[in-house]
Amino acid sequence: MAGLSSSRSGTESIDFSKLNVVLATHAALRRSGPPQALIEYLRNKAERLLVIVHPLLGVSDFESRALCYMSGETRIRIFHKTRGFSSLRFLLQLILDVFLVLLTERKADIFIGVDSLNAFAGILLRALRKVSTVVYFSVDYVPRRFGNAILDSAYFFLDNVCVKLSDRVWNVSAPMADIRRHQGVPRNKNLVVPAGVNLQKIKHVHSKTRRARTILFVGYLDRIKGVQLIIESMHRILKELPDAELIIVGDGPYENHLRTLVESKGVQENVKLLKPLPYDDLIGLMSECTIGVAPYVPVKQSYSILGDSMKIKEYAACGLPIIMTRVPAVATEVEREGAGIVIDYDSRQLSEAVINILENPELFENISKKAMVFASKYDWSSIFSKAFELTLKNDYGEE
After folding, report:
1. pLDDT of residue 281
2. CA-CA distance, 8 to 3, in Å (whole number)?
3. DSSP bridge pairs for 111
4. For residues 89 and 241, what is the distance between their CA atoms, to the nearest angstrom?
5. Which backbone phi and psi does 144 adopt, to 5 degrees?
6. Running along the chain, 399 residues long, what does each successive block of 10 average in pLDDT?
7. What pLDDT was estimated at residue 50?
8. Is the separation of the CB atoms in 259 and 273 below 8 Å?
9. Close Cβ partners of 397 (under 8 Å, ≥ 6 residues apart)
10. How many Cα atoms occupy the beta-carbon half-sphere of 272 within 13 Å?
11. Is the overall model pTM greater than 0.85, yes or no?
C-alpha cells in the first residue's frame, strides 16, 4: 500500500482541466471532513465536478442535494428528500446517485464514493458504462456500525463487494488499509489517503496572539470522543492554575449531559461550550488557544480506532501542543514526532499533562514548533495530488 503524507505533488502528470469527476458522500451539514476537503481541492481543477451529498443517519436531517461545478462555478443545484426509515432512505439515496449520473451526457472519468453505499452506486454506473474508474473512499470503519444485526450484515456485505469491485480503495489510515489487505485487496489498489489540513488557509487566518492557559476541544459531542474527561479533570487543573479556561466547540447528542456535568463539577466559570464555527473562525480560535485535547475513549466500537483525525492535524498546524489518548493510530506519530503528549484515558494523566505544558513556557514552545513540523507533512493539496496520481496512472508502485 502507498502512504500519501509526502509533500511531493503529482498534479503535473494529470490534466484536471479535462477531468469529469463525480463525488458522492454522506455528511453532516455543519461539520467538515475529508469529503469537504476533496470538494474544495477539485472544484477549481476539474472540468466538471458533480457532488452528491446525503445526510448522515442520526446526525443530520437535511435534504440530499447535488451540485455541479463547471470551471469552479456552481451551475446547477438539485434537492431531493430522502427521509424516512433508514433502510428505505439508503435505497433512495443509492437510486439518486445512479439517477443523477445517468442524467449527465458525458461519461464520468472517475467516480469517488465515500462509504460503501455510494461506492456501490459507482460500481453499478461503471457496469452501465457511465463511469470509467470507481474509487471507494473509506473514511471510517467500525466492527459494529449500526448496532442492528440486519443493517450490520448488509453493511459488511456491501463493504466487501465494494473493496473487491472498486478500481481503487482509498483508506484514511494504515490500520484500515491493513484490514483491506486481509479482505484480499491487492497492494496496487489499496492506498492510504490520510486526513490533512489546508496549510495555506491556516497560515492566512493564523492569529498572532494567544490566550493565556486556554485548553481547546473541537469535535462531535458524543461519549466516545471523551470530552467528559476534560471536564472531570478541570478541578485538578484549577487548583494549580485558577485562571485556566476550557473551550469546547461542537454539538451532538452528548451536549446536554456535558452542560449538566459542567454545573455539577462547579466549573461553569472556566468552561465555555460553543456551537460549531465557520472554518476560518475555528482556525482563528485554535491559533489563539494554548493546548488542543482529544481524549478518545478506548472502546471497540469507536470509529476513531481505524480512522484518522483532522482536528489533531489542525491543532498541530495552529501550533497547539496535543494531548490525546492512544486510540487512533496517529497517536503513535504524535508521540514519535514530539508534537504532543499521549496518555491513557485517565483524568490524573490528563490534568498533569495540561498543567505541565501550561506552567512551562519553554516546553510549550518546544512542542508547538514540533507540532507545526508534524502538520506540514499533511497538506491536503499534496495528499490528494498524490492520490490521483496513483489512481489514474498505470504504474502503482509504493512510494
Report:
1. 92
2. 12
3. 22, 134
4. 50
5. -115, 95
6. 45 76 83 87 92 76 80 63 64 91 92 96 98 95 69 84 96 94 93 95 77 94 95 97 97 95 97 93 94 94 84 96 96 97 98 97 97 97 95 56
7. 94
8. yes
9. 2, 188
10. 11
11. yes
How buried is residue 9: exposed, middle or buried, by Cβ count under 10 Å (0-12/13-18/19+)? middle
Residue 192, pLDDT score: 96
Can you give the pLDDT at residue 3? 46
Q: How many residues can be counted in the chain?
A: 399
CA atoms within 13 A on the CB side of 178: 7
Instruction: Please report which helix (H) or strand (E) contains residue 239, including its range.
Output: helix 227-240
Inter-helix orientation angle 330-337/310-317, to 10°: 20
Q: Strand ranges (DSSP E) for the chain? A: 2-3, 20-27, 48-55, 64-70, 73-80, 108-114, 131-138, 168-171, 190-192, 214-218, 245-249, 271-274, 291-294, 322-325, 340-343
Phi, psi angles (nearest 5°) of residue 90: -60, -40
Q: What is the pLDDT of residue 143?
A: 61
Question: Which of 224, 282, 344 has the alpha carbon at shortest distance from 32?
Answer: 282
Look up cell 434537492; give the residue: 79
Contacts of 292 (CB under 8 A, 6+ apart): 216, 217, 218, 286, 311, 312, 315, 316, 318, 320, 321, 322, 323, 340
Secondary structure (3-state) at 23: strand
Domains contained in the chain, CATH given: 2-196+379-392 (3.40.50.2000), 199-375 (3.40.50.2000)
What pLDDT does 163 receive? 95
What are the DSSP E strand ranges found in 81-211?
Answer: 108-114, 131-138, 168-171, 190-192
Residue for grid cell 494504515 = 174
Residue in the structure block whose three cell numbers are 481505524: 306
